[in-house]
Design brief:
Blueprint: H1 2-79, E1 84-89, E2 94-97, H2 99-105, H3 109-112, H4 117-120, H5 133-137, E3 142-151, E4 154-166, E5 172-181, H6 183-236, H7 243-267, E6 276-278, H8 280-294, E7 299-305, E8 311-313, H9 315-331, E9 337-348, E10 362-371, H10 401-411, E11 415-421, E12 425-433, E13 455-459, H11 463-475, E14 479-483, H12 486-495, E15 502-506, H13 514-524, E16 530-534, H14 542-548, E17 552-555, H15 560-575
Parallel strand pairs: 7-9, 13-14, 13-15, 15-16, 16-17
Antiparallel strand pairs: 1-2, 1-5, 3-4, 4-5, 6-8, 9-10, 10-12, 11-12
Helix pairs in contact: 6-7, 6-11, 7-10, 8-9, 9-10, 12-13
Length: 577
């Protein structure tokens, strides 16, 4: 019984096992199918993802290339700027700079990134490129800021414009700066200002010179009569005492007045000037001998005179330049000092012409006058060559000395410069262009005053001058016909053109000027010689005079000896074959 039961239980157990195995077999078959289907889906998804990744990778690579190209183009544009361009973040650290930044500060632009200006250049605390976080946070642009930066090329003046940089949401994240080097521009502005000041001074001197020239011309007419009649009177008196001595004093005073007029005319650049090739050294030696006797013993005179080339100059005016400069120097050394005069050859090179625009490249002679006196205030230096400007006490100077010097130097084609410091003395440098011409021999002793018997037509609108010159010529033996009007004289000449051997006319006359009168005379009778009398020569040039046929000039005030020799020379040249 027990055996049968056990058998039955075993059979049931076997059946259960068979059912379980069959069930597992069915499940296993189903899972494998599903697995195979899942695997196929996985491979499809993986394949699609791989394609998408590859596509995205290609897109990313293309985008990176575009960004790199854009970044390169941006850097090229920044580097092409002649000025500094920089970008700082909100903590004032450099994010980007251009090549010019690196060149000026001597640093690799890559090494700048992430650092502030103070960290990079701790010693340049005053650079205008330094900015604070508050300036950036203020979000306001700052235009046209000027300042100084220290660079490897030296200290530069710059113009800086700072503009805030904003993100897409409008928040300020940094600042972009544009810096332009304006050093050369500022230097050009300074030169322009100096040139404008020089032009103003030149125009002022020209205006005052024109006025002075007009006054000197009128005074010359008066002086001509004084000198002329004094000489005529002196010729009648043989006694050196009494009236003769008085007349000699009148002549001395007249000569001083004549020198004063010449100074005024020289200043106004209307004086007659005879430039001849000469050596400056003998003139300087002669002037220094004269100065030694007139300067106080407390002033030591030192001279260093080198052999110099020939210059085209008027000896009297060069003498006057040195005398005026040395006199000014002595006035600056009332308690004594050293007056030094240097003469030496110098060469003006091309680069020197920027400092000396009046001069041309080549050999020059430099005359320097230095003193150890009180010096000149910097504010006064630009005005010292202006007429009537003086730093001396009232009664100790006219203010014409340096103006005359300036006029003489300019008319000689030269330049003058002054260097001075208060309490350190003053130095004047005069530059005169050298020439290759040889110096002429000195004239022999003057010849006796010549006479004649020809008939002369004398024309001047100043009756006193007509009477005086007529008396002079009459005493020399000439027959003189006078007129005080160019119109009347022309009518007389037209009526009797063959009567006169010579015509002497003033240049400045109303209605008909001297050159117009001479032109009409020459049209009527080309062979008649004409002498033109004038107080200044710039109204008519030598070329214009020759074109009109004018044979000679006579400068007022007229001296009997000059008048006699000129008249005789012109008449003799007419008859010479």
């Amino acid at each position: 019984m027990m055996t049968s039961t056990a058998t039955d239980r075993s059979a049931e157990h076997v059946m259960e096992l068979e059912l379980t195995v069959r069930h597992l077999t069915n499940e296993l078959h189903l899972t494998r199918s599903e697995h195979e289907a899942a695997m196929r889906d996985y491979f499809d998804i993986y394949s699609n993802m791989e394609k998408k990744v590859e596509e995205r990778t290609r897109q990313m690579k293309s985008l990176q290339e575009q960004i790199a190209l854009a970044n390169q183009e941006l850097q090229i544009m920044l580097d092409s700027s002649p000025g500094i361009i920089f970008y700082k973040d909100s903590r004032t650290r450099y994010i980007r700079v251009n090549r010019r930044f690196g060149e000026l500060f001597g640093i690799d632009p890559e090494a700048v990134v992430g650092k502030t200006h103070e960290e990079l250049f701790p010693h340049n605390t005053q650079d205008v490129l330094i900015c604070s976080c508050d300036q950036i946070a203020g979000a306001e642009p700052a235009f046209n800021q000027t300042g100084i930066i220290d660079t490897v090329e030296g200290r530069k003046s710059v113009l800086v414009n700072n503009v805030p940089f904003r993100d897409p949401h409008g928040r300020v994240t940094g600042i972009i700066g544009f810096t332009m080097d304006i050093t050369d521009l500022q230097e050009a502005e300074k030169e322009k200002k100096k040139l404008e000041e020089r032009i103003v001074r030149s125009e002022k001197m020209e205006a005052v010179g024109t006025l002075a020239g007009g006054i000197a011309h009128d005074f010359n007419n008066i002086l001509s009569a004084i000198i002329g009649y004094t000489e005529l009177a002196r010729m009648q008196i043989t006694d050196d005492n009494g009236p003769g001595r008085y007349l000699d004093q009148v002549m001395k005073a007249s000569q001083r007045a004549k020198s004063l007029v010449e100074q005024i005319l020289t200043f106004s650049r209307q004086g007659q000037q005879q430039l001849l090739p000469m050596l400056v050294e003998p003139i300087v030696k002669e002037a220094l001998k004269l100065l030694r006797s007139s300067l106080p013993a407390t002033i030591e005179i030192r001279q260093n005179l080198s052999r110099c080339p020939t210059v085209l100059a008027d000896a009297t005016q060069i003498h006057q330049v040195l005398m005026n400069l040395c006199t000014n120097a002595s006035h600056a050394m009332e308690s004594g000092g050293v007056l030094e005069v240097i003469l030496k050859p110098v060469a003006i090179e091309t680069e020197d012409t920027q400092r000396f625009p009046e001069l041309h490249r080549g050999a020059h002679v430099m005359l320097s006058v230095s003193d150890t006196g009180c010096g000149i205030e910097p504010s006064a230096i630009p005005k010292i060559f202006e007429p009537y400007f003086t730093t001396k006490q009232k009664g100790k100077g006219t203010g014409l000395g340096l103006a005359v010097v300036h006029g003489i130097v300019q008319k000689h084609g030269g330049a003058i410069r002054v260097y001075s410091e208060p309490g350190q003395g003053t130095t004047f440098h005069v530059y005169l262009p050298a020439v290759a011409e040889a110096c002429p021999r000195k004239d022999q002793a003057p010849l006796p005053i010549p006479t004649g018997s020809e008939t002369i037509l004398l024309v001047d609108d100043e009756q006193a001058l007509v009477d005086m010159a007529s008396e002079m010529l009459a005493q020399l033996g000439y027959k003189v016909v006078t007129r005080s009007s160019g119109v009347e004289a022309l009518a007389l000449f037209e009526a009797k053109p063959g009567t006169f051997d010579l015509v002497i006319t003033d240049m400045t006359m109303p209605k008909l000027t001297g050159e117009q009168f001479a032109s009409h005379i020459k049209a009527i009778r080309p062979d008649v010689p004409v002498i033109l009398c004038t107080g200044f020569s710039e109204r008519i040039s030598q070329d214009q005079a020759e074109a009109l046929g004018i044979e000679s000039f006579l400068m007022k005030p007229l001296l009997p000896s000059d008048l006699a020799r000129t008249v005789r020379r012109v008449l003799d040249e007419r008859t010479r074959p």
